[in-house]
Each structure stands twice: as C-alpha cells, then as structure tokens.
Amino acid sequence: MGSSESGGVLIAAEVGGNGALRPVSFELVTAGRRLADQLGATLSAVVMAPNASAVASELGATGVDRVLAVDDERLAGLPSEPAATALTAAIALTKPAVVLVPGTTAGRDYAPRVAARLGLGSAADCVDLQIEDGTLVAVRTVLGGRLQTRVELPAGSPRIATVRAGSFARAESGAAAVEAETLPVEFGPRDGRVTMRATAEKPSGPTNLEAAKVVVAGGRGLKEPEKFVVVEQLAAALGGAVGATRAVVDAGWRPHHEQIGQTGRTVSPRLYVAVGVSGAVQHNVGMQGSDLIVAINRDPDAPIFKIAQFGIVGDLFDVVPAVIAELEGTVG
Question: Global pTM?
Fold first, then answer.
C-alpha cells in the first residue's frame, strides 16, 4: 500500500444524451479501483443526472464500494454550475483523497470549477494515474502527444484529475450490486442560470466510433480516396466502424467525424485494425487504449508496428481483400 490515508477515491460518472452511462464512466471505475487499492481505501461513485437513480445500479455492479445518485433536472447535459455543486456535495460527504472526472466536454468544464471552489490541486487530461508514497502521480501528454509529463499532487487534501477517454480498460459488470444512495443537494440560484433544453448528436456515420467494439481505420497508404472502399469493406466484414487519420481527413477523403487522434476522437475498441496507417504519435494517442491492435502496412519500419500486437507487412491492396475473403468464407 502506498499510503495510510483514510480518504478513498471518488469518481464522477456521466450520463449521455441517450440516458445511459457514458463508456468513460466504466473506465473511471478501473482507474479508481487501482488507486483505491493502492491507498488501501474505498471506491465511491456519484452519478449526476435527472435519471441518476435509474442507471446507478449498473455502476454498482462493477466493483465500486458505494454509489451516490443525485437526481435533478438541472443536471441534464451537466451544465457547469449545477454539476460543480453536485460534485462538491459528494466530496463533502465522502471526503476522498482523490477525485476522478471524465475528460469529456462537460468534465473539463466543471472539474476545474470544483478545484477552484475548494482550493484543490488538479491535473487535466490524464492518461495514467498511480499512487506513490501517498502522492498522486498523473501522467499527461503534451506537445501534440509527442511527450509525456508527470504531475505530482501531494497528500493532504483531495486531489482532482480529469481522465482522457480510452486510457483505461472498461470495468465489466459481475460484482455484487451495491444499492445506490440518494444524495440530497441544495442548489442555489446560480445553478439554474443555464439549463439544457435539448441535445442533438453530431454526425457520426453509420456506427458510433466511441461505442464500436471494432474499428478499422485507413491512412494515406490507401493512396487515393476512391480506394478507401477496402477499409469500408473490411469494417463491414468485421461488423465495425470506419475511422481515419488526420492526414486523410485534411485531404478531404473522409468526413471529420471519422478522424481518430489528438485532434479527433479517442476510441478504445476491443479490436483496432490500422490499414495503411503510418502511426504518427498524434494518431496513436487516440487509439492506443484499444484491447488489440492489428496493423497492415508495406513499410516494416512504420511506427504503428511498435504499438501493434499483430502486424502484417505487405501491400494492403493484396492483404485486405484476402482477409475479407477469409472472413466471408469465400477462400478455397
């Protein structure tokens, strides 16, 4: 154990526009469980949403020790002020040593507000977290993902960190369910200044990249936009979603909602197939949390092979059709 602190870990779980828990909430369970075990303490979670109690039970079966539910219409879409008020109340109740918040658009907004209100040390956009002799060590990427830095937050008061989606494995249900506790929160006049009236999903193609269990991404190795069809065919054969590198998107070959990487989407599917992708650092930070990475590239020195579990060195226009044929049972 790294410390004898009495405070445990508190994670903030978020609910999406569809009324279900966001996948990143389950990643925070994994990260929080590790830190709680290192501290020899408990792991608590707070769900903040109009339907918090209805979905909290799902989180309670993933290995957390305590689940709090804040049900309030003002929390729809997690506007910064009511979300900060709800999280502040959860911190006051649980008195944690560490608070983890999803690195979503909402989380990046309300987490620093909580840190400022309570005078807490904070770290943003973390890709790894550890407890070392009671100190929270947060790893962050800088300079477009080219370098990693360590931010050390010493013990003494709660420390808050936002976690980049795709950085940790998703916790699975299966543990004995923990019954959710209702957390009453007293909201003030300022918490009602902004309300969420409606939400609209951004275009995301036929399959939602963040939720896809299989992603097939194409890069400049495809040579021209018309040949991206082989990526689409492989994705269809695997039942997956189509992704692309920034270079491909900037060239106008694919829409921006398919871009994966530092300035695009972060994905963590069970299977990620990189087709003609060189493996620039800016792209890799958006998919390196995938369970299994398969790379297809004719250049044996392509950086993508350094993070891939399986690599195929060859002409993608020969390899991919052969793989599709095998998947579709047309070989032999």
Answer: 0.70
